Amino acid sequence: MALFSRRKRRQQEKALELEGADEQPDDGEDHDTGSSEAPSPDSPEEPAERPEHLADGPYDEADAPEEDRIDLGGIEVPTVDGLELRMEVDQRSGSVTGANLVIAGSSLQVQAFAAPKSRGLWDEVRSSLRDSVVKQGGTAETRPGVFGTELITRLPVKRADGRTGYRPARFIGVDGPRWFLRAILTGKALGDKEQSQRFETLVSRLTVVRGSEAMAPQELIPLHLPGQRPGLIPQRASAIDPLERGPEITEVG
User: Fold this and answer.
1) pLDDT at 125 over 60
2) Which residues sit opposite 71 in a β-bridge?
3) Quick one: pLDDT at residue 48?
4) What are 154's strand-pairing partners?
5) CB contact at 8 A, 198 and 107
6) Is 37 contained in some domain?
C-alpha cells in the first residue's frame, strides 16, 4: 500500500463532519463550532489532492513497484535521463553519508534515518533546523508542500569578495514506517516550477530500504556506492545535522 493513500481516511472524516452537523441544536441562536485554538504555523499541511506529477512514494521497500533503480543500500534511486549521481563519503571512515542527485545544475541531497515505530521525526528535525538557521543569522520559514510541511531557508555565507551572501535551500521531510527521509533541494530549481516538479517526481519515486537491524532513532541508514554491497553496518550519528555536508567525491553519469 502506498504511503500517501488517504482517500478512505478523507471519506471517514467527511462522514464524521456530516454526522456532527446533524447533532447541532436548532434553537435559533448562533453557535460557534470552530476551535478557539489557532492551528500551529508549523503543523503539517497536506494538499487537497496529490498532484499528477507525483508517484505514490517515497516507498518503503515492501511497497515499491517494479522498476529499474540504482541500488545505494538504504536508498534506491530510479534511473532518470540526465541524472548525475554524486556520493558523499567521509574521508576518515570511508563511510558513505549521503547522495546528491544532480539534474541540470540543481542538486537534491537525500539521506534516510531510522525512526521510532510510534512517531515520526520530521516535526522535531524541522524545528531544530529552523532554530539553528536563525541562530546563524539566516531565515527559515515553513510552508505547505506536496509532501506536507516544508522548510525554506536562507543561510548566510561568505563570498569570495568578503561580502555576505545567502544560500537558499528547500528542505523536504517524509516520515515512513520506522524511517525518515530528508531531501534538500538547492540550485536553479528553487525558482523554476518545471524543474522543481521534476525533483518532486524524483522524491516520490525513491525507495527506502530500512532493513530489520535494530537502530537508534536518527541513526543514518547505511548507504554504499553504486555497484557495491558491503555489510550493512549502521553508521552512527549523534543527531541529524542537515547543515553539514560531506565531500562529494564520486560521480556517476
Assistant:
1) yes
2) 76
3) 58
4) 139, 168
5) no
6) no
Query: Which set of grid coordinates corresponds to residue 216?
Result: 537508534
Q: How many domains does the chain have?
A: 1
Mapped onto helix, strand or coil, the DSSP state of residue 245 is coil
CB proximity list for 208: less than 8 A, separation 6 or greater: 58, 59, 60, 61, 74, 75, 112, 176, 179, 181, 221
- Assigned domain for 145 exists: yes
Residue 21 maps to a domain: no
Alpha helices in the chain (DSSP H): 7-22, 122-135, 193-204
pLDDT in tens, 141-178: 999 999 999 999 999 999 989 999 999 999 999 999 99
Distance, in Å, from the CA atom of 154 to the CA atom of 160, rounded to the nearest integer, reads 18
Eight-state DSSP code of residue 219: P
The β-bridge partners of 101 are 85, 108
User: DSSP secondary structure string, 155-181?
Assistant: EEEE-TTS-EEEEEEEEEEEEETTEEE
Examine residue 162 and state whether it is found in any structural domain, yes or no: yes
Residue 124 has pLDDT above 90, yes or no: yes
Q: Which domain holds residue 170?
A: 45-252
pTM, rounded to two decimals: 0.73
User: What average pLDDT does range 137-143 have in this prediction?
Assistant: 97
3-state SS assignment for residue 224 = coil
Residue entry with cell 535494530? 214
- What is the pLDDT at residue 31? 40
What string of DSSP letters covers 20-62?
HHHTS--SSS----S-SSPPPTTS----SS--TT--S-SEEGG
